[in-house]
Design goal:
Elements: E1 13-17, H1 35-49, E2 53-57, H2 77-84, E3 88-91, H3 97-104, E4 111-114, H4 121-125, H5 128-135, E5 140-143, E6 168-170, H6 172-185, E7 192-196, H7 201-214, E8 217-220, H8 225-231, E9 235-236, H9 246-258, E10 262-264, E11 268-272, E12 281-285, E13 288-289, E14 294-298, H10 300-311, E15 315-319, H11 332-346, E16 350-353, H12 356-364, E17 373-374, H13 378-385, H14 391-397
Parallel strand pairs: 1-2, 1-5, 2-4, 3-4, 5-6, 7-8, 7-15, 8-10, 9-13, 15-16, 16-17
Antiparallel strand pairs: 11-12, 11-14
The structure holds adenosine monophosphate.
Adenosine monophosphate is lined by residues 198-200, 203, 222-223, 240, 295-296, 320-321, 323-324, 326, 356-357.
């Protein structure tokens, strides 16, 4: 199989699907977080060094119908030029004559950024002709946008069919995302502990159903745990609860029992009478939360029990915070779990943190470089763990 390390880029043009969907300041349109751009530099630099030319394509935001000034990729050209230390050319469309001309004239070592793919509705529709036109611009197709790998869009999936197997590859970011997900799901070392938190059971039910088949321990934290406590007949006061998911929760608990998976819920909770930092705080048994109070974080006994399980694990997946970590009074559980994952990692466990808020938490609390891998793909990673085929991955691997 061709890889970015064994393909010949000399005098070739490579079109890379990157994820430059970066947050921009609403007023100044300046980039507020350039992590996604930085993650793609290794792939771009590799091609330049190997004597190739680079065409970059991405989406930015959610334009409704056609071009919108605030979603133009022209706002990020200067920043990428600075990061690459070379001029990045820009063309104000991603298909058409102007684009063809710019691509044809592109020389080895040069970089061209195309305008937002989603200014054309054909991108999200996975239109064949649109994909073919993009493909006509370059000799080699590289997908380095893990964040959109779960979408069968023209630039993430359909385009690949216009390249021979030797000329379509993953970029470095995609390759390491896939390798890290496989470390957890395919090359799993046991015990495997999955830690799932966050607000809602409904968002995580599919991943939980899959994890019951593969994990040894499932740790549940965050708002979603109270639907389970209610399902078990507990008093949960004003805690978050999805009544229409109680049935799911009961089935999941039964399945875990059948499969001999240890399902750990937080035995105690840090509760408050208001959703904020300024209420009365009390530690409570999670099965018996006082009326008028709500569970906003896991309690000290839960921290201890979860940390011990994490320390004894060889593979760890973490998605979703243990409590309302945005509020200083309810961040302890999330910080302590991040710390336990970091300690277990330094003990030899493989740890993958993925999904928006747990990624934000490891970054905010300084654990990002103390875990094995922090994924850049929220939805794509979840779908991978739900057992779905990712169109962006399949398009490269299949003929
Ligand atoms: P998610 O996007 O589903 O991973 O959920 C993350 C959000 O869940 C964060 O904004 C947390 O503040 C919130 N959250 C976590 N625990 C609780 C809780 N016990 N009650 C209410 N919200 C929570």
């Amino acid at each position: 199989m061709s890889t970015i390390d064994n393909i010949n880029f000399l005098n070739k043009k490579a079109i890379i699907r990157v994820d430059f969907n970066v947050p921009l300041d609403k007023k100044t349109l300046e980039i507020t977080d350039d992590t996604r751009i930085k993650s793609s530099l290794k792939t771009i630099n590799k091609i330049i060094k190997a004597g190739g030319a680079v065409i970059l394509m991405s989406h930015l935001g959610r334009p409704k119908s056609g071009p919108e000034e605030k979603y133009s990729l022209k706002h990020i050209v200067n920043h990428i030029s600075k990061l690459l230390g070379r001029e990045v050319k820009f063309v104000a469309n991603c298909i058409g004559e102007e684009v063809k001309e710019a691509a044809t004239n592109l020389k080895s070592g040069e970089v061209l950024l195309l305008e937002n793919l989603r200014f054309h509705s054909e991108e999200e529709k996975g239109n064949d002709n649109f994909a073919k036109e993009l493909a006509s611009l370059a000799d080699i197709y590289i997908n380095d946008a893990f964040g959109t790998a779960h979408r069968a869009h023209a630039s993430t999936s359909i385009i690949a069919k216009y390249y021979s197997k030797e000329n379509k590859i993953f970029g470095y970011l995609m390759a390491s995302e896939i390798a890290s997900a496989e470390m957890v799901m395919k090359n799993t070392k046991h015990p495997f502990t999955a830690i799932i938190g966050g607000a809602k059971v409904s968002d995580k039910i599919l991943i939980l159903e899959k994890l019951v088949d593969v994990a040894d321990y499932i740790i549940i934290g965050g708002g979603m745990s109270y639907t389970f406590f209610k399902a078990m007949g507990g008093n949960i006061g004003n805690s978050l609860c999805e009544d229409d998911r109680i049935e799911n929760a009961i089935k999941l608990l039964e399945k875990a029992k059948q499969k001999n998976v240890k399902f750990l819920l937080p035995v105690d909770s840090m509760t408050s009478d208001v959703f904020g930092n300024d209420g009365t705080r009390k530690t409570a048994d999670s099965m018996d939360i006082e009326a008028g109070f709500m569970g906003l974080d896991i309690g000290p006994k839960a921290v201890e029990e979860f940390s011990e399980t994490i320390m004894n694990s060889k593979t760890i997946l973490w998605n979703g915070p243990m409590g309302v970590f945005e509020m200083s009074n309810f961040r302890n559980g999330t910080v302590k779990i991040a710390e336990a994952i970091a300690n277990s990692t330094s003990n030899g466990a493989y740890s993958l943190v993925g999904g928006g808020d747990s990624v934000a938490a490891v970054n905010q609390f300084g654990f990002a470089d103390k875990v094995s891998y922090v994924s850049t793909g929220g939805g794509a990673l979840l779908e991978y763990f739900e057992g779905k085929e990712l169109p962006g991955v399949a398009a490269i691997l299949n003929d």
